[in-house]
């Protein structure tokens, strides 16, 4: 139920961010009497955009920290060990691909390496839509989380008994509803 509540909060926030916030920002941008409402709208929109671009980083780091410190290797089954390594590789690949554009140009590889890499064929759907560059790290983190949640013991260890996840999901849903009430007072 906690995951469903968190999904409802995320879907509601996404729907408000896509359908409502841009129109409200345009409507309240010139109204000085409602400056606090316009400021709240801009902060909400900025937070949504930054969370969409960089929200996968804390999730990937939390999964890596959990894997290193808290994951119990009770099963000596080879498939579980392979799955653990695959999860680690996916998370490290997500961090590397997501943070690569932030590396300064003087630390990047020489031009000859970049030209050689440019000659390799690209995956057509990602190459044709440049706006989906944010989706690769999110997809890798989601695949790693899905691999971890396949096993019931690992899922229970990761998500706990539901108290912490329940508190986080109710907090997220409360925040979305509070912001909606702030924008649309009775």
| Overall shape | flat
Considering DSSP H and I runs of 4 or more, what fraction of the residues is helical? over 70%
Poorly predicted tracts of residues:
none
Q: Helix and strand string, N-terminal first?
A: HHHHHHHHH
Radius of gyration, CA atoms, in whole angstroms:
21 Å
Tally of domains:
2
Strand segment tally: 0
Please give the alpha-carbon distance between the first and last residues.
30 Å
Strand content: under 5%
Taking all residues together, what is the mean pLDDT? 78
- The computed structural class is mainly alpha
Largest sheet: none
Number of helices: 9
Secondary structure: elements and pairs:
Layout lengths: L1 H27 L6 H20 L1 H15 L7 H22 L11 H8 L5 H5 L6 H16 L1 H8 L3 H21 L3
Helix pairs in contact: 1-2, 1-9, 3-4, 3-7, 4-7
List its salient traits.
mainly alpha, 186 residues, flat, single chain
Explain what you see:
The structure is a single chain. The chain has helices spanning 2-28, 35-54, 56-70, 78-99, 111-118, 124-128, 135-150, 152-159, 163-183. It is flat and about 60 Å long. The chain is mainly alpha-helical and 186 residues long.
Give a short overview:
With 186 residues, this protein is mainly α.
């Amino acid at each position: 139920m906690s995951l469903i509540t968190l999904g409802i909060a995320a879907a509601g926030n996404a729907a408000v961010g896509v359908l409502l916030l841009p129109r409200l920002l345009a409507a309240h941008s010139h109204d000085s009497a409602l400056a606090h409402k316009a400021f709240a709208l801009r902060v909400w929109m900025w937070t949504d955009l930054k969370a969409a671009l960089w929200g996968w980083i804390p999730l990937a780091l939390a999964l890596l920290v959990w894997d290193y410190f808290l994951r119990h290797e009770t099963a000596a089954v080879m498939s579980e060990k392979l799955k653990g390594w695959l999860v680690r590789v996916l998370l490290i690949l997500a961090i590397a691909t997501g943070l690569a554009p932030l590396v300064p140009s003087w630390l990047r590889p020489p031009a000859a390496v970049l030209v050689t890499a440019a000659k390799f064929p690209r995956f057509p759907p990602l190459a044709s839509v440049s706006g989906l560059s944010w989706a690769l790290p999110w997809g890798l983190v989601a695949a790693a989380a899905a691999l971890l949640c396949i096993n019931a013991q690992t899922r229970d260890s990761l998500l706990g008994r539901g108290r912490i996840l329940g508190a986080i999901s109710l907090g997220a849903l409360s925040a979305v509803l509070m912001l909606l009430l702030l924008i649309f007072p009775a």
